[in-house]
Amino acid sequence: MTVLKSGSYTHLILDITLADGGTLGLLPEIFQNYVNLKVVIFSTQPAYLHDEYLRLRYGVQYISKGEEERETIVKLLAFLNDTKIADPEPEKKHTAVSKGPIIDRITTRERQVVHYLAEEKEYTEIAGLLGIKESTVRSIRRDFQKKTGIRGLLALKKFVDQHKL
Which of 75-89, 135-149, 150-164 has the lowest mean pLDDT? Predict the structure, then answer.
C-alpha cells in the first residue's frame, strides 16, 4: 500500500491468492484511497470461484492463472490498454472443451475421484475404493485440473460442495 501512495498509478494488477477470500480485505481500502485506480485480480483460483462476485461487488476484472497463456496475455494487455476483449473466433468459441457449464464436462470417474480427494483420501486408498491403479487416479486428477483450473484442496472442497459431488 505504501508503494501505491508514493506514486501516481492508473492500473493495478493484484497477484494474490484467494483460497479463503481473506485477501479480499485489501480491496475496500484500495478503492477508498485510490478512487480512479483500475484493478484486475490475477490469481491461481479458477474464475468461476470469484469472477462474478468481484465484478458485481467491486467492479474489478478477474483473470485466472489457469487459463491458456495466450488468453491471459490478451486479457492483461486489454486491461492495461483500456480496451474490451473481443469474443473468441467462432471456430474456437464452440470447441468441446469450452462448451457448456464446467460441471457438465466432468466425467463420472472424475466426479468420484474428486469426491474422495476432497475427503482428503490418499491416492492409494482412492485407487482401492474404485478398483483402479494409483497412476490412473493421478491421471484423472490431472485431467480434472486441466478442465477446471482448480489446484488447491480448499478450492477443490468448495467445488465439490458447490456441485454436491
Answer: 75-89
The span from the CA of 1 to the CA of 155, in Å, is 27
| Other CB atoms within 10 Å distance of the CB of residue 95 | 9
> What's the topology of domain 98-162?
Arc Repressor Mutant, subunit A (1.10.10)
Q: What is the topology classification, in CATH, of domain 2-86?
A: Rossmann fold (3.40.50)
pLDDT at 1 over 60: no
Longest dimension (CA), the chain: 60
Say yes or no to pLDDT of 87 above 60.
no
> Is there a contact between 140 and 110 (Cβ–Cβ < 8 Å)?
yes
Q: Which of 156, 152, 129, 126 is nearest to 139 (CA)?
A: 126
Q: How confident is the model at residue 88 (pLDDT cuts 50, 70, 90)?
A: very low
pLDDT for 61 equals 80
For residue 13, what is the DSSP state? E
